[in-house]
Amino acid sequence: MHSKTLLASLLAPAAVSAVLNDLAVRAGLKYFGAALGEGAFQSDSTYASLLRDTAEFGQVVPENGMKWESTERTQGVFTYGSGDVSAKQAQQSGQVLRCHALVWHSQLPNWVSGGTWTVETLTAVMESHISNVMGHYKGQCYAWDVVNEAVGDDGNWRSTVFLDTFNGTGYLPVAFNLARAADPSAKLYYNDYNLEYNGDKTDRAVELVKLVQAAGAPIDGVGFQGHLLVAGTPSRSNLAAALQRFTALGVEVAFTELDIRHTSLPAPASAYATQGDDYANVVGACLDTPNCVGVTVWGVTDKYSWIPGTFEGQGDALLYDANFTRKAAWTSVSSVLAASATLPPTSTSSSAQACGSSTVYVTATATAQPVTVTVTATVTLSQTATTDPAAIQTLYGQCGGRGYTGPSQCGPYTAACKVQNDWYHQCM
Ligand code: G3I
């Protein structure tokens, strides 16, 4: 085998052809995941196969099946058929399961929201709901959204049956304590939208984490839902700054319900490119934040999304269009992940007879790492490369793209730096 061919095979161009969860894991995240729409999953085989593809989605979360109205529509009567769809899917494919959501004002049956309660009776209702539902899924959920959307759009505490009955925020530590007792293995999250803007609502969520901690109750994570707008998404650094306000408190973070919608449809082609940039900023912010564990998109395809039903005339917010074709945003996400991904270890058998070596720079990394590749006796590779990582990128390595600061020249076995997309130029 010619030495160039061997090096090329050792440095396989996985970064460009690989898919989202594979890339995310190589980039250091636990998962790249998606919400599972129970109706679509059961009726649309194209949808179901894509959601089952663990190279693309390493995590699932039920879009509706584990909510209170699905699991305890009638007091004391628990139904798990819809939630079990996601749990079974995760188990069958070995996907991470996020579980959503326990204490939330929405999709809450009338018997709870319209009931007349005291602190004691509502605590008993919460205890019964949390212990039954978390008990049913015990040991299966990587994380539970224990409290969802407790802060209003104006940054004040949201008036709900929980806040109002407790006459304040006392229900928050109660919920987290009940959750820990019900399933000690699950990470316990607070989950909300518009935390991304680092405004009053974000301040209040920081206060929430602090007050739960001050009460001695457990809280392990904060979910940034990420329901965002094309051309209205904060920059990568501003998003990272918002995430890091929470990781500074000792909790992990994740984007839990990401979609970035066009506010007017049909949108021009340029808006789809902007949408790609916005997605790259969100995923990039997670990559830039130690203790940001993953990114979950709130749906697989524009064919099925909650958005048009809530925001008429808006949408096209996901990574696949209604025909299951990857959009520009998919390419942006894969590229920003690839730029942070490292290839699996490349080493030969220890029994092989080494007769030459070359220092190469692992491809698809923003900060190229020197790796020594040992070449077997069947190959004569006489030179030892001493390329300068600041100046030279090797075959299949990244050589340009927005935000990239590594080597931009290609060599030694490379023809040119080829533009794959705005975010990823590659030595080919
Ligand atoms: O299940 C009924 C069905 O029986 C009935 O025939 C049909 C008629 O409209 O409605 C079905 O219920 C719908 C349900 O989704 C399941 O499809 C509800 O009308 C509909 O309002 C509900 O919307 C969900 C919404 O939460 C409710 O708040 C969306 O699918 C879901 O994507 C959305 O998800 C939320 C997250 O949980 C929390 N963060 C915000 C996010 C987006 O709103």
TrEMBL record:
Pathway: Glycan degradation; xylan degradation. Residues 391-428 form the CBM1 domain. The active site is at residue 257. InterPro entries: CBD (IPR000254), CBD_sf (IPR035971), GH (IPR017853), GH10 (IPR044846), GH10_AS (IPR031158), GH10_dom (IPR001000). It holds the Pfam family CBM_1. This is Beta-xylanase. The lineage of its organism: Eukaryota, Fungi, Dikarya, Ascomycota, Pezizomycotina. Residues 44-336 form the GH10 domain.
